[in-house]
Amino acid sequence: MAIPSRPLPSGDELPMVGLGTGGLGTEAVRTALDIGYTRLDTAEAYGNETEIGEAIADEDRDDLFLTSKVRPANLHYESVIEACEDSLDRLGTEYLDLYLIHWPNPAISLRETLDAMATLHNEGKVRNVGVSNFSAYQLSNANHVTDVPIALNQIEFHPWFQRPELVEYCEEVDVVVEASAPLARTEVFDEEVVGELAETYDRTPAQVVLRWAFERGVATIPGSGSAEHLEANLAVFDWELEEADHRRLTDLDRDQAVYEPNAPDWMGGIFDIPH
């Protein structure tokens, strides 16, 4: 199955649909690989890099696109280097196709973090550098303090939360937008429009929403441990929404997030910023 892709600054191609692995283990990832997924998105904060490493151990590394993320507590120079090397060890690979700053940390210099990213890039341990949960202002700062191109900004994006100004800025500076919650954690399935279009096109609600994102040029990483859902989430490239139907989904924008405005628990949890 050929998955459309977007070019990145390194010349690599980013598959437009991948697997968000948060909460998933080895068997779910193996199932996804068997179905045809090649793009796997993880993070040190997910705590499952070892399991993903087990799932991909027998795969041809050249056929995979692996992303991981460094947690906000580890954004000092030496901490970034160490965190990346630990992720590589857990994943059992010599390089990451894409390495992201999971969340910006206002307590640590962005220049320092990106200097470390540049070192990893120059050493061949990271092929592309990106960010996650960055505003347009933060992304602009990142672009001004590093010579390594910012390849991608992974943000919350779905019909309820479309962030047109941020998406437009990313497009202007040639940064791929990737939706970390493309289905609004399934909450958007309750929308009448989504249900109507699913029936009209004989597709699942998830397929309708993912197709809409693809038509917007936004990459997606829906997560699922169900083989049925995994297969369905890839089946969004051989059909299209009518222009009026696409617009009906776009008109659902209400600036309503399911996670992004809720500031991380900087003092604990997966972010673990020390007092």
Write up what this structure looks like:
- Helices cover 37% and strands 13% of the residues.
- By secondary structure, the protein is α/β, with parallel strands linked by helices.
- It has an 8-stranded parallel beta sheet, with helices on one face.
- Helix 1 (26-35) crosses helix 2 and helix 3 crosses helix 4 (110-122).
- 44% of the residues are buried.
Notable traits:
275 residues; alpha/beta; TIM Barrel; eight-stranded parallel beta sheet; two-stranded antiparallel ribbon; 10 helices; 10 strands; globular
Given the structure, what is the number of helices?
10
What about the largest sheet?
8 strands, parallel
Query: What is the CATH architecture term?
Result: Alpha-Beta Barrel
Query: Which CATH C-level class is it?
Result: Alpha Beta
In helices, the fraction of residues equals 25-40%
* Order of secondary-structure elements: EEEHEHEHEHEHEHEHHEHH
Low-confidence stretches: none
Find the structural class using helix and strand composition.
alpha/beta
Percentage of β-strand residues: 5-15%
Question: Radius of gyration, Cα only, in angstroms?
Answer: 18 Å
Distance between the termini: 49 Å
What general outline do the C-alpha atoms trace?
A: globular
Short description:
By secondary structure, the protein is an alpha/beta fold.
Blueprint of the fold:
Blueprint: E1 5-7, E2 13-15, E3 19-20, H1 26-35, E4 39-41, H2 49-56, E5 65-70, H3 77-91, E6 98-101, H4 110-122, E7 129-132, H5 136-145, E8 150-155, H6 164-172, E9 176-179, H7 192-201, H8 205-215, E10 219-220, H9 227-234, H10 243-250
Parallel strand pairs: 3-4, 4-5, 5-6, 6-7, 7-8, 8-9, 9-10
Antiparallel strand pairs: 1-2
